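Blinded run. Sample ID left blank on purpose so nobody reads anything into the name before looking at the predicted structure. Input follows.
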Amino acid sequence: MKMNKNLVFVMVFFAVFAAFVTACKKDDAPVVPPVDKSALKTTLDSSNVWYTKAAEGVAVGTYEVGSKTTFKTAIDAAQGIYSGTTATTTEVANANVNLGKAGETFKSKRVAEIAPEKLVAFWKFNGDVKDASGNKHDGTLTKGHAFWGAGMPTLTKDRYGVANMAYHFDKGGNIEVPFATSLNPAKEMTISLWVKSDSIWDNSYLISLSRWNGFKLNLQGTNKVFFTVHTADDKFLDRDNASPELAISKWYHVVVTFKSGEMVFYVNGTMVKTWTDTPGDFSAVTNTNLTIGQDLPTSKYTLSDKDPNYLNWGGFFKGDMDDVRMYNAVLTSTQVTSIYNAEKP
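Blinded prediction complete.
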Protein backbone atom coordinates (compact mmCIF):
# COMPACT_ATOMS: atom_id res chain seq x y z
CA MET A 1 0.00 0.00 0.00
CA LYS A 2 1.35 3.35 -0.99
CA MET A 3 1.97 5.80 1.86
CA ASN A 4 0.69 9.30 1.50
CA LYS A 5 3.53 11.61 0.45
CA ASN A 6 2.56 14.26 2.98
CA LEU A 7 2.61 11.71 5.76
CA VAL A 8 6.11 10.60 4.76
CA PHE A 9 7.30 14.18 4.75
CA VAL A 10 5.90 14.81 8.22
CA MET A 11 7.50 11.68 9.60
CA VAL A 12 10.92 12.56 8.16
CA PHE A 13 10.67 16.13 9.49
CA PHE A 14 9.91 14.96 13.03
CA ALA A 15 12.69 12.37 12.90
CA VAL A 16 15.25 15.04 11.93
CA PHE A 17 13.90 17.48 14.55
CA ALA A 18 14.06 14.83 17.26
CA ALA A 19 17.64 14.03 16.38
CA PHE A 20 18.51 17.75 16.55
CA VAL A 21 16.88 18.21 19.94
CA THR A 22 18.55 15.11 21.33
CA ALA A 23 21.97 16.32 20.15
CA CYS A 24 21.51 19.68 21.83
CA LYS A 25 20.53 18.15 25.16
CA LYS A 26 23.66 16.01 25.42
CA ASP A 27 25.83 18.95 26.58
CA ASP A 28 24.55 22.49 26.59
CA ALA A 29 27.78 23.95 28.28
CA PRO A 30 30.90 24.70 26.24
CA VAL A 31 34.01 22.60 26.94
CA VAL A 32 36.44 24.58 29.18
CA PRO A 33 40.08 23.48 29.23
CA PRO A 34 41.67 23.03 32.73
CA VAL A 35 43.65 25.99 34.16
CA ASP A 36 47.41 25.57 33.69
CA LYS A 37 49.05 25.76 37.13
CA SER A 38 52.48 24.40 36.19
CA ALA A 39 54.27 27.78 36.48
CA LEU A 40 52.74 28.40 39.89
CA LYS A 41 53.81 24.95 41.08
CA THR A 42 57.39 25.62 40.00
CA THR A 43 57.45 28.89 41.93
CA LEU A 44 55.86 27.21 44.96
CA ASP A 45 58.38 24.39 44.96
CA SER A 46 61.40 26.71 44.78
CA SER A 47 59.90 29.07 47.39
CA ASN A 48 59.32 26.23 49.84
CA VAL A 49 62.88 24.97 49.44
CA TRP A 50 64.23 28.48 49.91
CA TYR A 51 62.03 29.09 52.95
CA THR A 52 63.03 25.80 54.58
CA LYS A 53 66.76 26.36 54.16
CA ALA A 54 66.75 30.03 55.24
CA ALA A 55 67.64 30.97 58.81
CA GLU A 56 66.84 34.22 60.55
CA GLY A 57 69.46 36.15 62.49
CA VAL A 58 72.05 38.90 62.25
CA ALA A 59 75.02 37.02 60.84
CA VAL A 60 76.04 37.34 57.21
CA GLY A 61 73.94 34.94 55.13
CA THR A 62 70.96 34.90 57.47
CA TYR A 63 67.71 36.82 56.98
CA GLU A 64 66.22 39.63 59.04
CA VAL A 65 64.17 38.42 61.98
CA GLY A 66 60.48 38.28 61.00
CA SER A 67 61.11 38.07 57.27
CA LYS A 68 60.36 34.32 57.10
CA THR A 69 56.89 34.85 58.57
CA THR A 70 56.06 37.38 55.88
CA PHE A 71 57.39 35.08 53.15
CA LYS A 72 55.40 32.12 54.55
CA THR A 73 52.20 34.16 54.39
CA ALA A 74 52.75 34.71 50.67
CA ILE A 75 53.56 31.02 50.13
CA ASP A 76 50.38 29.94 51.91
CA ALA A 77 48.26 32.32 49.84
CA ALA A 78 49.70 30.94 46.61
CA GLN A 79 49.25 27.38 47.85
CA GLY A 80 45.56 28.10 48.47
CA ILE A 81 45.13 29.15 44.85
CA TYR A 82 47.06 26.12 43.60
CA SER A 83 45.15 23.61 45.72
CA GLY A 84 41.71 25.10 45.00
CA THR A 85 39.45 24.07 42.14
CA THR A 86 37.76 27.35 41.26
CA ALA A 87 40.68 29.67 40.45
CA THR A 88 40.68 31.24 37.02
CA THR A 89 43.66 31.52 34.71
CA THR A 90 44.04 35.16 35.70
CA GLU A 91 43.95 34.35 39.42
CA VAL A 92 46.60 31.66 39.01
CA ALA A 93 48.82 34.00 37.01
CA ASN A 94 48.45 36.75 39.62
CA ALA A 95 49.28 34.31 42.42
CA ASN A 96 52.45 33.31 40.61
CA VAL A 97 53.49 36.95 40.12
CA ASN A 98 52.74 37.87 43.74
CA LEU A 99 54.72 34.93 45.09
CA GLY A 100 57.64 35.85 42.84
CA LYS A 101 57.61 39.41 44.21
CA ALA A 102 57.43 38.11 47.77
CA GLY A 103 60.48 35.98 47.05
CA GLU A 104 62.41 39.00 45.76
CA THR A 105 61.46 40.95 48.87
CA PHE A 106 62.60 38.07 51.06
CA LYS A 107 65.87 37.92 49.15
CA SER A 108 66.49 41.59 49.90
CA LYS A 109 66.28 40.81 53.63
CA ARG A 110 69.40 38.64 53.50
CA VAL A 111 72.19 40.00 55.67
CA ALA A 112 75.07 40.74 53.33
CA GLU A 113 78.66 41.59 54.18
CA ILE A 114 79.42 45.29 53.81
CA ALA A 115 81.98 46.08 51.10
CA PRO A 116 83.28 42.49 50.84
CA GLU A 117 85.78 43.50 48.15
CA LYS A 118 87.44 45.83 50.71
CA LEU A 119 87.33 43.40 53.63
CA VAL A 120 90.86 42.42 54.68
CA ALA A 121 89.97 40.24 57.68
CA PHE A 122 86.94 39.29 59.76
CA TRP A 123 87.48 37.51 63.06
CA LYS A 124 83.97 36.45 64.13
CA PHE A 125 85.18 34.62 67.26
CA ASN A 126 82.45 32.01 66.75
CA GLY A 127 84.23 29.42 68.83
CA ASP A 128 87.60 30.02 67.18
CA VAL A 129 89.97 32.72 65.88
CA LYS A 130 89.73 31.96 62.17
CA ASP A 131 89.41 34.69 59.55
CA ALA A 132 85.95 34.53 57.96
CA SER A 133 86.86 36.88 55.10
CA GLY A 134 88.45 34.12 53.05
CA ASN A 135 91.82 35.91 53.12
CA LYS A 136 93.32 33.35 55.51
CA HIS A 137 94.43 35.74 58.25
CA ASP A 138 93.73 33.13 60.92
CA GLY A 139 94.85 33.99 64.42
CA THR A 140 96.47 31.99 67.22
CA LEU A 141 95.50 32.12 70.88
CA THR A 142 98.62 33.32 72.68
CA LYS A 143 99.62 33.51 76.31
CA GLY A 144 100.42 36.95 77.70
CA HIS A 145 103.77 37.94 79.12
CA ALA A 146 104.56 36.64 82.61
CA PHE A 147 104.81 40.25 83.82
CA TRP A 148 101.13 40.70 82.94
CA GLY A 149 100.12 37.36 84.51
CA ALA A 150 100.45 35.08 81.47
CA GLY A 151 96.73 35.06 80.72
CA MET A 152 94.98 33.38 77.79
CA PRO A 153 91.91 34.52 75.86
CA THR A 154 88.89 32.41 76.79
CA LEU A 155 85.58 31.89 75.06
CA THR A 156 82.64 33.69 76.61
CA LYS A 157 79.08 34.84 75.90
CA ASP A 158 78.56 37.30 73.08
CA ARG A 159 76.30 40.39 73.22
CA TYR A 160 73.27 38.16 72.57
CA GLY A 161 74.07 36.01 75.56
CA VAL A 162 75.14 33.01 73.46
CA ALA A 163 77.98 31.02 74.99
CA ASN A 164 81.36 30.53 73.29
CA MET A 165 80.75 33.16 70.61
CA ALA A 166 83.11 35.91 71.83
CA TYR A 167 86.47 36.09 73.63
CA HIS A 168 87.38 37.43 77.05
CA PHE A 169 90.83 39.00 77.45
CA ASP A 170 92.92 39.62 80.57
CA LYS A 171 96.50 39.38 81.86
CA GLY A 172 97.98 39.88 78.42
CA GLY A 173 96.23 36.97 76.76
CA ASN A 174 95.97 37.86 73.08
CA ILE A 175 95.30 36.68 69.56
CA GLU A 176 98.33 36.85 67.29
CA VAL A 177 97.88 37.09 63.52
CA PRO A 178 100.85 36.43 61.19
CA PHE A 179 102.14 39.55 59.46
CA ALA A 180 100.93 40.27 55.93
CA THR A 181 101.25 43.45 53.92
CA SER A 182 97.46 43.50 53.51
CA LEU A 183 97.17 44.01 57.29
CA ASN A 184 99.15 47.24 56.88
CA PRO A 185 97.08 49.30 54.41
CA ALA A 186 98.98 52.15 52.82
CA LYS A 187 96.25 54.75 52.38
CA GLU A 188 92.92 53.93 54.02
CA MET A 189 91.54 51.77 56.82
CA THR A 190 88.40 50.96 58.75
CA ILE A 191 88.37 48.93 61.96
CA SER A 192 85.02 47.70 63.30
CA LEU A 193 84.51 45.67 66.47
CA TRP A 194 82.25 45.01 69.44
CA VAL A 195 83.75 45.61 72.87
CA LYS A 196 82.77 45.36 76.53
CA SER A 197 85.45 46.47 78.99
CA ASP A 198 85.76 45.13 82.52
CA SER A 199 87.81 48.04 83.83
CA ILE A 200 89.30 51.35 82.76
CA TRP A 201 93.01 52.04 82.32
CA ASP A 202 95.27 53.89 79.88
CA ASN A 203 96.76 50.91 78.08
CA SER A 204 93.67 48.94 77.17
CA TYR A 205 94.81 47.80 73.71
CA LEU A 206 92.20 46.34 71.38
CA ILE A 207 94.11 45.81 68.13
CA SER A 208 97.63 46.81 67.22
CA LEU A 209 100.30 46.48 64.56
CA SER A 210 103.64 47.30 66.20
CA ARG A 211 102.18 49.77 68.68
CA TRP A 212 102.54 53.41 67.62
CA ASN A 213 105.15 52.38 65.03
CA GLY A 214 102.28 51.25 62.82
CA PHE A 215 98.75 51.73 64.15
CA LYS A 216 96.86 50.92 67.33
CA LEU A 217 93.32 51.13 68.63
CA ASN A 218 92.86 51.26 72.38
CA LEU A 219 90.73 52.66 75.18
CA GLN A 220 92.07 55.48 77.34
CA GLY A 221 91.96 56.06 81.06
CA THR A 222 88.73 57.98 80.49
CA ASN A 223 87.49 54.99 78.47
CA LYS A 224 87.32 56.89 75.22
CA VAL A 225 88.24 55.23 71.93
CA PHE A 226 91.78 56.24 70.92
CA PHE A 227 93.46 55.65 67.55
CA THR A 228 97.09 56.20 66.64
CA VAL A 229 98.57 56.24 63.15
CA HIS A 230 102.29 56.53 62.45
CA THR A 231 102.45 58.46 59.19
CA ALA A 232 104.99 58.16 56.42
CA ASP A 233 106.56 61.53 57.33
CA ASP A 234 107.47 60.20 60.77
CA LYS A 235 104.68 61.93 62.59
CA PHE A 236 102.16 60.41 64.96
CA LEU A 237 98.45 61.11 64.75
CA ASP A 238 96.74 60.51 68.10
CA ARG A 239 93.02 61.21 68.27
CA ASP A 240 90.04 60.06 70.32
CA ASN A 241 86.27 59.95 69.93
CA ALA A 242 85.82 63.03 72.18
CA SER A 243 82.53 61.70 73.56
CA PRO A 244 80.87 59.64 74.83
CA GLU A 245 82.91 57.78 77.39
CA LEU A 246 82.21 54.05 77.28
CA ALA A 247 80.70 52.55 80.41
CA ILE A 248 82.22 49.36 81.75
CA SER A 249 80.36 46.04 81.54
CA LYS A 250 78.35 47.23 78.53
CA TRP A 251 78.65 46.19 74.89
CA TYR A 252 79.47 48.89 72.31
CA HIS A 253 79.97 48.82 68.57
CA VAL A 254 83.11 50.85 67.86
CA VAL A 255 84.36 51.92 64.43
CA VAL A 256 87.24 54.14 63.36
CA THR A 257 88.06 55.12 59.78
CA PHE A 258 91.19 56.83 58.51
CA LYS A 259 92.54 58.40 55.37
CA SER A 260 94.90 61.33 54.98
CA GLY A 261 93.16 64.38 56.37
CA GLU A 262 90.24 62.58 58.00
CA MET A 263 89.83 60.34 61.04
CA VAL A 264 86.24 59.48 62.01
CA PHE A 265 84.90 57.72 65.11
CA TYR A 266 81.54 55.93 65.43
CA VAL A 267 79.87 54.51 68.52
CA ASN A 268 76.82 52.28 68.12
CA GLY A 269 76.36 53.22 64.49
CA THR A 270 76.47 56.97 65.09
CA MET A 271 79.28 59.27 63.96
CA VAL A 272 80.54 60.96 67.14
CA LYS A 273 83.72 62.73 66.04
CA THR A 274 85.48 63.73 62.82
CA TRP A 275 89.07 64.99 62.83
CA THR A 276 90.41 66.77 59.75
CA ASP A 277 93.83 67.82 61.06
CA THR A 278 95.25 64.35 60.29
CA PRO A 279 97.45 64.53 57.16
CA GLY A 280 99.61 61.61 56.06
CA ASP A 281 99.52 57.93 55.14
CA PHE A 282 100.28 54.78 57.07
CA SER A 283 103.95 54.04 57.52
CA ALA A 284 105.17 50.61 56.48
CA VAL A 285 105.57 47.90 59.10
CA THR A 286 107.50 44.68 58.50
CA ASN A 287 107.92 41.43 60.36
CA THR A 288 105.65 42.28 63.27
CA ASN A 289 102.55 40.21 63.77
CA LEU A 290 99.23 41.92 64.38
CA THR A 291 97.79 41.43 67.85
CA ILE A 292 94.25 41.57 69.22
CA GLY A 293 93.98 42.22 72.95
CA GLN A 294 97.57 43.37 73.46
CA ASP A 295 99.88 46.00 71.92
CA LEU A 296 102.70 43.66 70.82
CA PRO A 297 103.22 39.95 70.28
CA THR A 298 104.27 38.48 73.62
CA SER A 299 107.61 37.32 72.23
CA LYS A 300 108.52 40.86 71.11
CA TYR A 301 108.54 42.39 74.60
CA THR A 302 111.80 43.27 76.32
CA LEU A 303 112.50 44.32 79.91
CA SER A 304 114.85 47.14 78.96
CA ASP A 305 113.56 50.70 78.97
CA LYS A 306 116.21 51.45 76.32
CA ASP A 307 114.39 49.20 73.85
CA PRO A 308 111.41 50.46 71.81
CA ASN A 309 109.59 47.24 72.73
CA TYR A 310 109.91 47.84 76.45
CA LEU A 311 107.12 45.89 78.12
CA ASN A 312 106.12 48.55 80.63
CA TRP A 313 105.22 50.98 77.85
CA GLY A 314 102.59 48.62 76.61
CA GLY A 315 99.43 47.06 77.88
CA PHE A 316 96.51 44.73 77.28
CA PHE A 317 92.73 44.70 77.16
CA LYS A 318 90.53 43.59 80.03
CA GLY A 319 87.10 42.57 78.83
CA ASP A 320 85.15 40.94 75.99
CA MET A 321 85.54 41.45 72.27
CA ASP A 322 83.68 40.15 69.23
CA ASP A 323 83.31 40.47 65.45
CA VAL A 324 86.54 42.28 64.63
CA ARG A 325 86.68 43.54 61.03
CA MET A 326 89.43 45.31 59.10
CA TYR A 327 88.93 47.05 55.74
CA ASN A 328 91.47 48.65 53.40
CA ALA A 329 89.03 51.48 52.67
CA VAL A 330 87.00 54.12 54.49
CA LEU A 331 83.44 52.90 55.04
CA THR A 332 80.68 55.47 54.68
CA SER A 333 78.44 56.41 57.58
CA THR A 334 75.61 54.47 55.91
CA GLN A 335 77.75 51.34 55.76
CA VAL A 336 78.81 51.67 59.39
CA THR A 337 75.21 52.15 60.48
CA SER A 338 74.20 49.11 58.44
CA ILE A 339 76.72 46.93 60.27
CA TYR A 340 75.45 48.17 63.61
CA ASN A 341 71.79 47.71 62.73
CA ALA A 342 72.42 44.18 61.48
CA GLU A 343 74.40 43.15 64.55
CA LYS A 344 72.97 45.08 67.48
CA PRO A 345 71.50 42.99 70.32
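Unblinding after everyone has recorded impressions. The mean pLDDT is 90.
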